[in-house]
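Reviewers asked in the last cycle whether our approach scales beyond single polypeptides. To address this, we selected a multi-component target totalling 1074 residues and predicted its structure end to end. The input consisted of the following lines:
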Amino acid sequence: MTGCKTTYGIRFWESDSSDTMKDIHSRQSSWIYGITLTPPTLGDNIADADRLIHALKAELHTDRVWIELPLLRKLPSLFRASEWKIQCVLFKDRRGYILIDAMPAGDALPVAGMAVDLGTTRVVLRLLDLVTGKTLGETAFDNPQAVIGPDILTRIHHADTAEGLNELHRLIVDEINLHTDGLCKTCGIPTNCVFAMSVAGNTAMTHLFLRLSPRWIIREPYIPAANTPPVIRARELDLHLAPQACVLVFPNVGSYFGGDLIAGILYSGIHNREETSLLVDVGTNAEVLLGNRQWLMACAGAAGPALEGGAARMGMPAGPGAIDRVRIRPDTRQFEVHTIDDAPPRGICGSGLIDLAAQLFAAGMIDIRGKFVEAECGAHLKEIDGVRHIVMVPGTDSQSGKALTLSQIDLDSLIRSKAAMYTILSTIVATVGIGFQDIDVFYVAGAFGAFINPESAIGIGMLPDLPRNRFVSIGNSSLEGATLALTINNCLDEIDKIRNLVTYMELNVNQEFMARFSAAKFLPHTDRSLFPSVTII
Amino acid sequence: MTGCKTTYGIRFWESDSSDTMKDIHSRQSSWIYGITLTPPTLGDNIADADRLIHALKAELHTDRVWIELPLLRKLPSLFRASEWKIQCVLFKDRRGYILIDAMPAGDALPVAGMAVDLGTTRVVLRLLDLVTGKTLGETAFDNPQAVIGPDILTRIHHADTAEGLNELHRLIVDEINLHTDGLCKTCGIPTNCVFAMSVAGNTAMTHLFLRLSPRWIIREPYIPAANTPPVIRARELDLHLAPQACVLVFPNVGSYFGGDLIAGILYSGIHNREETSLLVDVGTNAEVLLGNRQWLMACAGAAGPALEGGAARMGMPAGPGAIDRVRIRPDTRQFEVHTIDDAPPRGICGSGLIDLAAQLFAAGMIDIRGKFVEAECGAHLKEIDGVRHIVMVPGTDSQSGKALTLSQIDLDSLIRSKAAMYTILSTIVATVGIGFQDIDVFYVAGAFGAFINPESAIGIGMLPDLPRNRFVSIGNSSLEGATLALTINNCLDEIDKIRNLVTYMELNVNQEFMARFSAAKFLPHTDRSLFPSVTII
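The resulting structure, written as structure tokens, was:
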């Protein structure tokens, strides 16, 4: 079966190398400042620390430079050993510049930073050279809090039990430390040369990371403990970095709009452009951000787990053996599937599911309501326990020896998900009084953006029918945003600017939402004129 | 002998209750702010910490309010348990307002602060109620670093040895902790209700307290590690206060002008007055500050240990049995001495020595060079080991049974000290181009100010011959300044203003100093016109 795979041709979505991305990445940071101090004399006898602060204030054109006590202790011997020629590692906090470390000029020790995508399911660490901005290495691991519960809700309830919050906090911090040690070792970077960490996670994960109670996040009126956590030092969380490393945790807009999305916006650069763009990040929730340099409107809604491969009986996360692309030959109606790593098929992931639905619809095998058309499905249709299933892969070709099928129920669920997604998109666009055609760039983040066939997503009416070159897949935008935060100078100004620009819209209080949702539960939509480019055989 | 004590009459020096002092003390602090938060709703759902920060910014008319992570963690449950009515303990740092603690409104727990006079020889702790500004209790102890060396120079050298700095640091911090525990217990204040500490010490003591190397303080060009140490948290030095208590260490102007003097200036209020005042603090060094709201000129010089009772063979620090006042009856030339606590005499302290010299001179028993006049001294004079001594107390009346005497050598030493003192004063006054008569208030700090008879000090030409009501004795001005720092709102603004106003003048590079010193080595001075009020029998 793996032999019948079809390459879908060019991925017409724009990749990370688009001009907008390059534009952002070109803003290089200055973490290291070489400073030559004037040695003191009887006539110029201010103290060592004050001498350095004066020099840094002049260099950085600021009146706010701070040195904490432990670092201050080492300055006198450093200055004299280095003959007053030093280099300084600085981070710009909300309070001003913080001197993180100082060393003799020309010191060859690396100056590294760690960007963290703190996902509910998966965590990614990326080690960076702060001087060049280059990635030194990357590692990913499953969020160990899954032992408490795979979903965030279970974890939030667990945090309410005695020691529950501490336990969840230790689980994630210990695992980050373990993988930090490993990644640093692999890259040949001592952990105490990691001087900064940026952490982008949703609001609940951010709370668990900082050991803040997430209790009120899920209780009306849904209040986080903090929207803008302070920049802390690594030692405050016992992180395996330089103890004085600055840890920047992305702020959130609210309980349902977290720092991961702020990081995504930072990476997309939407907040700096005149034109209006849209950013969608699809997980269990679809999180949507629409706006430009003047305003940013956000909303989030349940897009349904179908898209994460969690709902369909044959659904599975993207991984070896997951069907990620499907094609139905127009002539023979034969199914051609592609699996990840070309492994024998064992399930279907989100992008495969969307492909399958689009192909079934294009072939007339399902109708506009998403129901199987018996006459067109023919032998592919099979009734199991009184429910109709379409056979994607016969038992002879699957990994388990059992046929891989998709039921009407699974399909209904997918239709609801796609309808929810389209409704969220059309609602936010309508709320600000524009149309989809006014969206200059349509960013699609995450695995969803990276792997789905946009033609299929449009074909089933999940995404709007826009010129394909307006879609840009920006990959793991949280990780990229966390990375960017460590490579631009005034990252906190930029991040806080985004946070303050964002207006969050509650979808569940929107009156028109249900009407729009009903209209979107058809393929591609009740209003066919919205999808002129979608054709049916 | 104690029976023949004479009360010298009114102490014409102004006491602490002068108007200028009251003026300063009336500026009460606001450590506690009662805040009633608007409970969140779906339409007003910003996070707990951000809600409080917004409220505090409005209340304090600032855009800089900071809450650190540990405190942030307790806000959600505090807000809900207190029904959104809380009180906040705030400290104004150089970076803005720091929330130190928050508790339910009406909470009865005390909010205390600790003022510390960190002397080389003696340390004084004063526990304050921060709300009322009232003193709760006070304790004093000898600086335990004396086991390393009584003088600061020995300690600085010791700090250069392996673990020497740590040892000195631990000695002082442990002893402060011990006495903090004791004082808090006596006053019924839990140590974790002490939310602030202010520390006024000389530059070297400040360094040892903060575990900063004092090595370069005593080496040309005499550079402290820091002039303006940051405000730290109690936990950073393991102090027995609330771990998050803010510790304000007074900044110094340089190696020889420390935070103790900045504290003294703060207390005197010189820096806020239109009129020009002078402040002198006498210890082993005489430290002098001259100025007004526009400028402050400082200098320090060795006044000689004679004034601390350290040099004379019979000299002793002020303590039970120390002769602190002497009168020579004009008719009989009998010595009338007063001792501290009326104990049997065992030595003579600084104020006694000055009295003695003034009385000897007034009685014509010493000449203008300070040499014993044999004809006038008569039987009081005695030669011991070839050196002439004056007998103050016969053996029959002393504690030891031995006569208490003062040698010509001791007297010469005192004359040098008084000459140094007068020279320092006249040099600084001349440097800024004014005369002593232009000094509106002449503050005399410390035990010297509190105990000496100013008539005697002027009589020997140690202090200038000004109207007596211009002299104000301000006691332990370091301790009072440290206290004041905890009772005024914007203490760091005030302190930094002083620090930045002060110009430090190096006396040992002053050309005219030696000429002035020679002229001052006579009683009261070679230029008698400078001391019109001093009469000789």
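The first strand of chain A starts at residue 32 and ends at 36. We regard this as preliminary and will revisit it once experimental data from Aim 1 are available.
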